[in-house]
């Protein structure tokens, strides 16, 4: 009888428990381990004009190192790590659907910060940090490692976790900036942004300089219709549309034409000059990085920070 029981126990172990033990040993026992996280991702390195396969964890550390100052609070760095991972995973999901940006040369994502996420290699970042390199890299590594596998979703779909440097105190909604109403990218209050060194900037041009730049970039301007008029603003204060020389253009286009830090611009004429006073830095949609650091300094966790900026999202392990 004992022999029969022993045989039964061995059979149960082989058929049920052994496979689970193997999975545990291979995948790790920690919560949040992700099959994507442990693999590699193809990255188009814009500066070198080549595609490289990178370890996902190391890629994310290089993104966080490029996107956010290492002296920011740990919870802000964790929020950035989750946002960066979510942004990457959304690109992986798009590639699985066959949607790849032509500029990526077949890769999932690129290192051009104007198109995807900023990226800097560990060696280059360590060189720029100097004596504090080890401490800074360990801090960023911890932020990525301690949020391993965590991403943001809305209605069980991976979100497009866009972010920017500094808002004007209120973030912009996606519909006002890009024309698409995205439920989790709504305009929200962003405390502490005014403490950012990038909060305020100015550009002053002579009237002729202003006209020259506009004429080069905008077809059909007629200064008989005035310089700037019919300014339409979002609730956050960013310019949605305006007329320049009688030609209606988007605020994002105006920002690009004059290389301004954001679309939140007050335009005035003083002594024959055109003065443009700007609040914020970046497109203004999603998480404000300086706002995130401020919230972290107020004791907010990274999950609380993320849910402040991305309306109605869930944070889950994939």
From TrEMBL:
Pfam families: SpoIID (PF08486)
Gene coding for it: spoIID
Lineage: Bacteria, Bacillati, Bacillota, Clostridia, Eubacteriales
Assigned keywords, A-Z: Membrane, Transmembrane, Transmembrane helix
Signal peptide: none
Record's protein name: Stage II sporulation protein D
GO BP terms, alphabetized: sporulation resulting in formation of a cellular spore
Keyword Metal-binding (UniProt): no
GO CC entries: outer membrane-bounded periplasmic space
Listed transmembrane segments: 5-26
Residue intervals of the Sporulation stage II protein D amidase enhancer LytB N-terminal domain: 48-154
